[in-house]
Amino acid sequence: MTATSPGFQLHAYRAAFVAAVALIAAIAAVPQANAVSPQVRNACANDYLSNCSAYDPESAQTRKCMRAVGYKLSKGCIAALVAAGEVSKAEIARRSASNRR
Questions:
Q1: Considering the entire predicted model, what is its pTM?
Q2: Is 17 found in the same domain as 47?
Q3: Domain total for the chain?
Q4: What is the DSSP letter of 85?
Q5: What would the DSSP string read from start to end of 21-80?
Q6: What are the φ and ψ backbone dihedral angles of 38, each rounded to 5 degrees?
C-alpha cells in the first residue's frame, strides 16, 4: 500500500468537486432550456391544442411542430414567442415573405 501526498489528495478532491458542480449545473440547465414562459403558454395554448397536442408541451417535438405550423399560429402566440426570444422578428418577416410567394 502506498501513501499519497496531501497535495495529490487535495488536487483529487478539487477535481471531483469541480466535476460534480459542472454535472449539477448541466442537469439544472436542462429544464431551463426547455421551459416555456407562462406568457407563451397562455398565448399559444389554443395553437398548441389545434396543431401540436400529440406532443408533451415542454418537449423538443412541440417546438419543432410549432415551427412547422408557424404560418398557422395566432398573432398573439407569435407576439409572445417573439417577446420570449423563442423566435426573432427577422424569422417572422422571412417566413411571411416566403408564404406570400
A1: 0.61
A2: no
A3: 2
A4: T
A5: HHHHHHHHHHHHHH---HHHHHHHHHHHHHHTTTS-TTSHHHHHHHHHTGGGS-HHHHHH
A6: -60, -35
